Amino acid sequence: MNKDNVLQKIVAPPIAEQQPQTLELHGDRRVDNYFWMRDSSNPKVISHLEAENAYTEAIMEHTEALQFRLYNEMLARIKETDLSVPYRKDEYYYYSRTEEGKAYQIYCRKQGSLDAPEEILLDENELAAGCDFFELGVFAVSPNHQILAYSVDTSGSEQYTLYFLDLTTHQLYPETIPDTYFSFAWANDNKTGFYTKINAANRPYQLLRHTLGTPPAEDVLIYEEQDDIYHLYVGKTRSHAYILMVLQSSITTEVHYLDANNPQSNFQLIHPRKTGIEYNVNHHSDYFYIVTNDEATNFKLVKTPVASPGKENWQTVIAHQEDVMLSGVSLFVNHLVIYERKGGLETARVQNLPTGKEHNITFPEPTYSFFEGNNPEFNTKTLRFHYTSLITPQSVFDYDMETSQMELKKQTEVLGGYDKTQYQSEWLMATAPDGTQIPISIVYKQGLKKDGKNPLLLTGYGAYGYSYPASFSSTQLSLLDRGVIFAIAHIRGGEEMGRKWYEQGKFLQKKNTFTDFIACAEYLVTEKWTASDRLAIMGGSAGGLLMGAVINLRPDLFKVVVAHVPFVDVVTTILDTSLPLSAQEWEEWGNPNDKVYYEYMKSYSPYDNVEAKDYPDLLITAGLNDSRVKYWEPAKWTAKLRQMKTDNNILLLKTNMDAGHSGASGRYESLRELAFEYAFILDRLGLGQM
């Protein structure tokens, strides 16, 4: 009997009580023995989660020294007292900074020049005092820079309370507004703000107008969205000319606009919602510039007069391309920045609006990620963007759109003498069962031998059109330096290879996501990057669904699995429209009230397909206050796996009792969580002594 079996006999895992609940639809009966776990007011539920946590702690006790080592080495690479690159807005320079020993950001500014005295606007550490969880939502300075609107969540449930701070006196205004979402826009009068409220299901569904210094009870309801599949957001154009109200489902958009100089007037419609038509809006002079998929799968750019923005007046600026996806645009007084994806990689080009001339922004590495930074000023020739790769730390550049000169403002410092030449990244291709080529980003320590003996951690997501970024992580060095290869499977369901890549991994083609991931794993084994008994996988949320699906399909292929807040009870959750995201999910996974979708979703739902067979070592995480994937999904899945699996491998559930979907909020607690997960992976791969 090995040490794992001995330990598990000494420390017995909690066995959840079974209370059969029959769920019936379309003549099909499903029996859920753990449906009762949904009731968090039931003391048995909390007791069970606490018992699982105690069991997890006991099983992982022998890794405490490893956890301590990992935490300290990851912390040692971080410059604890650090400063973001200031960005200019009018006469102010805004930035945030951190201090050693403090878990949260401090937001500051300087007036006139970077040599001016510092003014602290908001210290998250002070706001978070006494809170087990803290997250900042809205952070919006008024146009005259005298008032700060900010919101906070102290539970992890994504229910924010909105505050207003006078930046002259540093006194709070008397009003506080609870149950808000993290979108807000100031009108140009510096006293009117627009914010979104959430309903009982945490869906942002109302837009309200607030006048500074007045009771929230007097706020004017501008709009209420009745359709459960739409979320409501509010924002402002970079030109400062218009407030935008955006109504958005997974596949459909409707945008209304309001003159920011006349906040008491009415919002006007740009184009009414039409199922499947998405669009987002930018403004320049007399035109709205609109990126849309209307008759353009990979999106196109049109412009339309502000005075009459309806579709009948849309003029094509950038036509649809079959092999290039238009990801978005950014507008400045004299420049249009065009973001695209081609061959799986992000690209950008800049157009001079007066002359029409264009040039490309190019990057040298085989796999990388970049995104636009904070660019609040409209009348500027400088574009700020962030660049990173699997071996290049986060780098902030200022790019001169006139001269094409690129200035590195800051590269995140990795303490301890990081040398990127000691690591290698590559862009690989695996073949899916239908012949599709699936990209893999991979990074490893130089000197690696492809002999099938290397430990490897493979991750992926593959949902909602989210393209998994190939970005640097200093914490990941704790794996790479122990010989672990890290790889990202850019599977269908994301948008790495264009919009069709996403569409081929959703609805009734969702299983492509899972078989793509398996194909990537098999490729890495076949090509001797690793072996199945050296292969760990990790994914969160919809990526946790991925983990559950692939271990149901191919449990023999993987040694270790970490599933963060996994969305695993697909059918039951999406049928329950009282939950925050369920109705909107119909446009991603399908509506199970339709028998065709019900049967298809049930055929891959991880919870519904647990079988009596051997499973890999498993660490499953949850957040008690998670509003996106309710805690009971990972808890029920764990209970069912423990009941049915036929192996003696480790199965752990770790629930953060004070947090939500994203786990711990402070940077030190986040590192401890990560050290715990890395320790689990290394220990199960036999690398616990390294």
UniProtKB/TrEMBL annotation:
GO molecular function per UniProt: serine-type endopeptidase activity
Record Pfam families: Peptidase_S9, Peptidase_S9_N
Domain of life the protein comes from: Bacteria
GO biological process, one term: proteolysis
Keywords of the record: Hydrolase, Protease, Serine protease
Domain Peptidase S9A N-terminal: 13-411
Peptidase S9 prolyl oligopeptidase catalytic domain location: 471-686
Family note: Belongs to the peptidase S9A family.
Name assigned to this protein: S9 family peptidase
Native organism: Atlanticothrix silvestris CENA357
